[in-house]
Amino acid sequence: MSQFFGRNTAMMAQANANVSPRTRSEQSAFIHRTFGWMAIGLAVTGLVALGVSQSAQAVKTLAHSWVLLIILQLGIGLGLQFAISRISSALATMLFLAYSATIGLTIAILLLVFTTASVFSAFFITAGTFGAMALWGMFTKADLTRLGGIAGMALIGLVIAMVVNMFMHAQGLEFFINIAGVLIFTALTAYDTQRIKYMYLVGPENSEASKKASIMGAFMLYLDFINLFIFILQFMGQQRE
After folding, report:
1. What's the rounded Cα separation, in Å, for the pair 9 and 185?
2. For 140-170, how does the pLDDT look when each residue is reduced to its tens digit (9 = 90+)?
3. CA 203, CA 42: separation in Å to the nearest integer?
4. Bridge partners (DSSP) listed for residue 114
5. 130 in Cβ contact with 225 (< 8 Å)
6. What is the pTM of this model?
């Protein structure tokens, strides 16, 4: 499955150029299932965030344990990505939902840091941006492989800058990080959406391979949406006094 994810988008598009109506139907079903799982993941995140944010003590405890929270998120996320070929689709689904729940804990902290108006504004801007780029990635005839490669390299630089700024606390660098984050995950949304169009080729509909590919596709889109939301919120959000 890892080999499938690394295929060139143009090659996959060419392989998919002359397919039967039945295959087109399978592709459509795969895409709908993938976006459906992404929506479920976002719903889990939202419900956990809203529930936890009702307790100031719980949020305070989370804020003091943010390092452990990040380690937990990295552990689940990396475990899902690297073990996807060896685990069942049911376990992959559970890991995806567990990851979504842990992100909800992070969002709960942000809900108490930023005003309600800022959170809603950032969410709607994120939804609009994500939707527009997803549509472009879905219907464009251009090969977005190069765009995805550039965004991926930029993401590495972004992570390094974020680690450096954890010690520097430079407002100028933070401003740059937020803008770069918005641009990078905007580009990755289009690229990942285009990849998902051809991920159904990994196996027959309702096979284990297809189900796991659908979860991985949902995980990719989920990460794009959540990170885009967080960077937009940090860029334009107004903090509570």
Report:
1. 18
2. 999 999 999 999 999 999 999 999 998 888 8
3. 26
4. 239
5. yes
6. 0.90
